[in-house]
Amino acid sequence: MASIDLLIIFFYLLVMIGIGIYFSRKNKSSEQFTTASGAIPGWALGLSFYATFLSAITFLGDPGKSFGSNWNPFVFSLSIPLAAIVATKWFVPFYRGSGEISAYTHLEKRFGGWARTYAMVCFILTQLARMGTIFYGIALTLNALTGIDMRLIILVAGLCIILYTVLGGMEAVIWTEVIQAILKTMGAAMILYLITLKTPISTIIETGMREDKFSLGTWNFDLSTSSFWVILLYGFFINLTNFGIDQNYIQRYHTAKNPGDAAKSIWLCVLYYVPVSFLFFFIGTALYAFYGDNPALILELKQQVSIEKNIPLEALKASDYGDRVLPFFMKTQIPSGFLGLLVAALMSAGMSTMSSGMNSSATVFLKDIYLRYIDPSATEKKQFRVLLFATTCMGALGIVFGISMIGVKSLLDVWWKLSGIFAGGMLGIFLLGFLAKKVRNSEAKIAAFLGLILIAGMSFKDALPTYLQIPLDSKMTVVLGTVSIVGIGYLLHKIRAK
């Protein structure tokens, strides 16, 4: 990378840390650290939600998928408005009315400590999986551009994120995400513009139509493969989890000035994310058309992947190197100056999600572990110190998870599988308590236990005998887990009522 590009990246990191230092002057209490004292305007919160959705998984995974296959994963984005309807009508009023910062406090009130603890553990594991996947995505790109060891990249990026998150708390997180949201959107538009200078849009569309790259998957109601309906159901349930039980989102409902602003921010997120997600999938198809017309330009990448994965060059598929295509294009086709801006945009795509994940995980540790089991009478000063310590620890664990993910085949596939495993039980227990008001603790325990058996069976079905395997696509794990817990719990209640 040229010196100008490195300077731009260095300046970006300094700005992020500078924001943390600026807000550190106000960041003196647990309330300020976790909810910014409820002073965030709706438009900024909407950009913050959008920045969380638009992570490095989107930045690299979406173009990688549309390059290597088709637009089937874009159906996930189409499901977000459906989940937003539910969230704005029921979830936001529920949480704003409860006054509880933790998303899991009400689960203990409804079913007991076991439900709160289970949901909290699933949330933390989800955050670690998300942070690890995103760290790896950032490292993959910077390694391709600079040759710097991935582990060192993850370590340095992680330390920068920990620093500004610890210094500035939730207010710094949200305002850095506002900047990052703008930077990421500009980066996506710039990438597509640079591709279209080399390959006209008409050629991209013609190639995409000829190769069936714009397909959203089969429209047959087939739940055993990645059909349109499987992705729609998966996306709907995952986004219900995001808006209904994910501390990342619940905590930020409380940062809004009022419930109206909190609800408005969700729709602003939808308005921003869906078209930009479309843009990233189109970038993948554009790259496919560009390299289809210029196969010699991608030979270096294919040879590298062929050696690394021990796959003969002639047997290599586009899906084998889809996640690497965008970083390779940035490295070989984008001029100096522009490259630094795009790398900063990619880093912002990862940093926004990880900083909010660290802050919300620290909040969960304080509210659901420390104050619940260790020191219920902790002073305000002590609570604030615990938040700083927990944020640092979550960041360190995220770094470890990122290093452990080096070498995975597809960022999007890994993230979807892990999120599906952890989300099913969380959402099922929440909806059971939210929808079925008369279901008792004992009935919820049985429903959760049986639901988790089904989730485990779906998650590790390849290890089971054929006759025990559930004939559903793995992305149906969250759907099956949620529906089974709610359904079994309600059925047990009806049996008892008789």
Question: Overview of this structure, please?
Answer:
This protein has one domain: Sodium/glucose cotransporter, CATH 1.20.1730.10. The protein is built from 19 helices and no strands. The model has no long low-confidence stretch (mean pLDDT 88). Helices cover 77% and strands 0% of the residues. By secondary structure, it is an all-alpha fold.
User: What is the straight-line distance between the termini?
Assistant: 72 Å
Give the helices and strands as they follow along the chain: HHHHHHHHHHHHHHHHHHH
Task: Describe the sheet with the most strands.
Answer: none
Structural class by SSE content: mainly alpha
Q: What's the pLDDT, averaged over the residues?
A: 88
What gyration radius follows from the Cα positions, in whole Å?
A: 22 Å
Q: Which CATH architecture? A: Up-down Bundle
**β content, as a range?**
under 5%
CATH fold group: Sodium/glucose cotransporter
Continuous helix count: 19
Q: From the structure provided, what is the oligomeric state, counting identical versus distinct chains?
A: single chain
* CATH homologous superfamily assignment: Sodium/glucose cotransporter
Total domains, how many?
1
The CATH class assignment is Mainly Alpha
State the share of residues found in helices, binned by percent.
over 70%
Shape: globular
What are the main properties of this structure?
Sodium/glucose cotransporter
Provide a brief overview of the structure.
With 498 residues, the chain is mainly alpha-helical.
Annotate the secondary structure layout:
Blueprint: H1 3-23, H2 30-35, H3 42-53, H4 56-68, H5 75-98, H6 105-111, H7 113-146, H8 150-196, H9 201-210, H10 228-245, H11 247-253, H12 259-293, H13 299-309, H14 322-333, H15 338-374, H16 380-404, H17 411-435, H18 441-459, H19 477-497
